[in-house]
From TrEMBL:
A GO biological process held by the record: rRNA processing
Cofactor: Mg(2+)
Lineage: Bacteria, Bacillati, Mycoplasmatota, Mollicutes, Acholeplasmatales
Compartments in which it is found: Cytoplasm
Keyword Nuclease: yes
Alphabetic keyword roster: Cytoplasm, Endonuclease, Hydrolase, Magnesium, Nuclease, Ribosome biogenesis, RNA-binding, rRNA processing, rRNA-binding
Identification of the protein by name: Mini-ribonuclease 3
Subunit record text: Homodimer.
Alphabetical list of InterPro entries matching this protein: Mini3_fam, RNase_III_dom, RNase_III_sf
Domain RNase III: 5-103
Organism encoding this protein: Acholeplasma hippikon
Protein family according to the UniProt entry: Belongs to the MrnC RNase family.
Length: 122
């Protein structure tokens, strides 16, 4: 599967995990849920999470390959975000998509690390 297809899957998988996390925190107001969801799943937050993973050297070789597939496949950004942020976020989503297929436990572990890192970065 190519990197952008993995990112497509990873985006949905990660967002569902974030939504479950937010509900587990007792947040019930829709506007508050939406604001918090955006905080955790924005391209900037995903870039911060993947940069943390890279800095801490916690990805395996296969995981790095999955990240790079998505990052390198993202040639066009969005109007409201710079290309580097978009590429890093797409790489993060590709990693999550890859792991959701090949190692769901590891996927959940990295999502928990990402959520903790983003949450503590407030």
């Amino acid at each position: 599967m190519n990197g952008l297809s993995l990112a497509y899957l990873g985006d949905a998988y990660y967002e569902l995990a974030v939504r479950r996390y937010l509900l587990s925190q007792g947040i019930t107001k829709i506007d508050q849920l939406h604001k918090q969801k955006v905080k955790f799943s924005s391209n900037a937050s995903q870039m911060k999470a993947i940069n943390y993973f890279l800095k801490e050297n916690i990805l395996t070789e296969d995981e790095m390959d999955a990240f790079k597939k998505g990052r390198n496949g993202a040639h066009f950004g969005r109007k409201n975000i710079d290309i580097v942020t978009y590429q890093q976020a797409t790489g993060f989503e590709s990693l999550i998509g890859y792991l959701s297929i090949h190692n769901e436990e590891r996927c959940k572990e990295l999502i928990a690390k990402a959520i903790d890192y983003i949450r503590l970065g407030e």
